[in-house]
Amino acid sequence: MQPTERFSDRAAVYTRGRPTYPDAIVAHLRSEGALPADSVVVDLGVGTGLSAEPFLRAGYSVIGVEPNDAMRAVGDERLAHCGRYLSVSGRAEATTLDAHCARLVIAGQAFHWFDPPRAGAEARRIAMPGGWAALIWNDRPATGTPFLEGYEALLHAFGVDYAQVAHRHVDEDAIRRFFAPTMPRIAHFENPRSLGREELEALVGSASYMPAPGHPRHAEMSAALRRLFDAHAVNGRVQMHYRTRMHYGPITD
Fold first, then answer.
1. Residue 8 Rama label (left phi>0; alpha psi -120 to 50; beta)
2. pLDDT (tens digit, 9 = 90+) per residue, 87-141?
3. Where are the domains of the chain?
4. pLDDT tens digits for range 66-101
5. Which of 51, 118, 196, 243 has the highest CB neighbour count under 10 A?
6. DSSP letters along 152-190, please?
7. Which pTM was predicted?
8. What's the CATH number of domain 3-140+161-192+241-250, 3.40.50.150, 3.40.50.720, 1.20.1340.10, 1.10.1370.30?
9. Shortest CA distance to 109 belongs to which of 78, 83, 140?
């Protein structure tokens, strides 16, 4: 399946399932000089808009670039109340945007689907002089608690191409190719999340590598997920200890 098509049948559950992004990433980029007042942020692979939200809350204008029509439509509806949000149909490698339109170019949980050199060249084209870029992921530890270890085992047991996708999330060479010739900086932010049963089911349902409804293994996977939740929930909740990772730096002189 093409990366741009992987989430077409997941758009409805994506926002309910996926973690949000902490406001601390915006404060950190501002302190580093990447976000002067009135900056325009371009979000590559914006999806349903989760990665755009902290920048919108901070008062910045965001242009979301998204090739998947279903994901973009959900994001447009969710963020319709934000007068500073605009989405366009485009790819990280060919955004359709004017040159020098962005002070900051970001990608939240999306860069691993890009062609790094081509996306890097496009980011430089749309960035204004002195522009920056930030690649952001919400990382989930695979170990540390019985629930986290059981959840990781479930992904391996039922995920169609989980191992390959997980590896791409930490491809340091691809990140270096995107920022080349400069070297990016890195920052981490704690981003814990408490999930009820329906939220956990939505999280699994939002993953492109997990069996969707109608798949021969979907019922088996759902039963295993229910057993995992029941075994580890405390007061009807389980804990996902996300840590937000951000690679960032200037991309133009």
1. alpha
2. 999 999 999 999 999 999 999 999 988 999 999 999 999 999 999 999 999 999 9
3. 3-140+161-192+241-250
4. 999 988 999 999 999 999 999 999 999 999 999 999
5. 51
6. HHHHHHH-SSHHHHHHHTT-HHHHHHHHTTS--EEEEEE
7. 0.89
8. 3.40.50.150
9. 140
